[in-house]
Design goal:
Layout (H helix, E strand, L loop, with lengths): L1 H18 L12 H7 L4 H13 L3 E4 L3 E4 L2 H4 L2 H8 L9 H27 L4 H16 L4 H19 L2 H24 L2 H19 L7 H39 L1
Antiparallel strand pairs: 1-2
Helix pairs in contact: 1-3, 5-9, 6-8, 6-9, 6-11, 7-8, 7-10, 8-9, 10-11
């Protein structure tokens, strides 16, 4: 158990260093002995972690030469983000970068999810509609319980994916769940209660309307739902800009004092 925890800790540390460009693409890592000493881990655990990152296309291990960092944007997959956002110990100075990634994730979601709902509308059974209706009722009941609300939102998303019944889509949803949870967590922390109530009411009306339409004349409803997602993203972007300006102002003030 201790070895497994050790290699997971090493893998997480290296992943975050790669993600936040503390280690850059093309850079050669120190030799194993030096790396194990600096990370206070045994060589066996280190090698397990390095092999894991190699399998994720984050490292290029060249026998007799060394270990090189790959460009994760060109080579890595969704599992890289899944593992990153499964961690809850990000240093404070990295949170802003996390927020920028969350903003990009929202852009992907705005493009992607309304099209899934459109496809689900052609395949939804009466049982699927009943399940979705129950989730919407729970959503209203839990509006003041943030963690439960996020779980319900994830369940709604995954019910849509299950309705489509596509294996590749389900695997993508499994891998993206930690990322989607973080997207929703950031949103619920940014949104005012009145706006949250409005979003929930509008979403319920639109989603149930075009799920029950069996795919007929739903393009307008889908685009209206997309507008809801765009508004949610804008709330997060406004907070990101505000926090960034506040952080810059604080740094300037500290610099002038020193």
């Amino acid at each position: 158990m201790a070895n497994r925890q050790a290699h997971q800790k090493v893998a997480t540390t290296l992943m975050r260093d790669i993600f936040f460009h503390k280690i850059r693409p093309g850079e050669k890592l120190p030799p194993e002995r030096e790396l194990s000493n600096s990370m206070n881990v045994d060589r066996t655990s280190l090698r397990v972690a390095l092999k894991q990152l190699e399998a994720m296309e984050l490292l290029d291990i060249r026998p007799g030469d060394g270990i090189y960092v790959k460009d994760f944007i060109r080579h890595a997959g969704i599992d890289f983000l899944r593992m990153l956002f499964s961690q809850n110990n990000a240093p404070e100075d990295e949170l802003a970068v996390d927020m920028f990634i969350i903003d990009e994730a929202w852009e992907w979601w705005i493009i992607f999810f309304p099209e899934l709902i459109k496809l689900a509308a052609t395949r939804a059974s009466s049982r699927d509609l009943k399940k979705m209706s129950v989730l919407f009722d729970k959503e209203v009941d839990c509006i003041n319980q943030k963690d439960k609300l996020i779980d319900i939102w994830l369940d709604q998303q995954e019910l849509i994916a299950a309705t489509i019944n596509n294996m590749v889509l389900m695997l993508l949803f499994n891998s993206s769940r930690p990322l989607r949870r973080n997207m929703l967590r950031v949103f619920v922390e940014c949104v005012e209660h009145e706006d949250l109530e409005r979003f929930i009411s509008s979403k319920k009306s639109l989603v149930m309307n075009f799920l029950m339409s069996s795919g007929k004349d739903i393009n307008l409803d889908v685009e209206q739902y997309r507008e809801i997602l765009i508004a949610q993203r804008q709330i997060i972007r406004n907070k990101l800009i505000k926090d960034t300006v506040s952080s810059d102002t604080m740094r300037l003030q500290q610099s002038s004092i020193s």
